[in-house]
Design brief:
With about 170 residues, the chain is an alpha+beta fold. Helix content is about 30%, strand content about 35%.
């Protein structure tokens, strides 16, 4: 396993539509292990492959409770995930490992139906609710080239872009 570098906005790979995974091999398993290690090290609760510069439809999502006991974190791998239906609406705070220094409320479905494949290529199908559903929706958006800031009002998005410009200028 290896830590990968998390790509940050406005890098163009974050706007790419990720490619379907058709080969389920050791390379994919290694990618998933690296993604999980990177996600937990960040620390985060979800990570899409394009966030580490690989435009493939792979996400890892933390399945632990919001406050897990020490060393009890678990994750699920979703390959080629599709959200086929959403029920209810809930507003909650989100941040993103690829969108620096931005935390804001976003409206998401409360419950979703997910179909995907696991790292071996086996089919997965399940319903997710609340926090778990929010994380999955956020990560699947990444695979479509959508960032959570795209779900903000135009004014909030403009204010964030100004703030980011200042942050990036200070880093240079």
């Amino acid at each position: 396993m290896a830590l990968r570098t998390i790509i940050t906005y406005p890098h163009p790979v974050l706007r790419q539509e990720a490619e379907l995974v058709t080969v389920f091999d050791q390379e994919l398993k290694n990618l998933v292990m690296d993604m999980a290690e990177t996600m937990y090290h960040a620390p985060g609760v979800g990570l899409a492959a394009n966030q580490i510069g690989i435009a493939r439809q792979v996400v890892v999502v933390d399945r632990s409770p919001a406050e897990p006991a020490e060393n009890t974190r678990t994750y699920i791998t979703l390959v080629n995930p599709v959200i086929s239906e959403g029920v209810g609406r809930v507003t909650g705070e989100e941040g993103c490992l690829s969108v620096i220094d931005c935390y804001t409320t976003v409206v998401r479905f409360r419950k979703i139906h997910v179909t995907a494949q696991d790292v071996e290529g086996n089919p997965l199908e399940f319903d997710a609710e609340d926090r778990y559903a929010r994380i999955i929706q956020h990560e699947v958006d990444h695979l479509r080239g959508t960032l959570f800031i795209d779900r903000l009002s135009p004014l909030k998005r403009t204010l964030y872009k100004r703030k980011l410009k200042k942050i990036l200028q200070e880093q240079q």
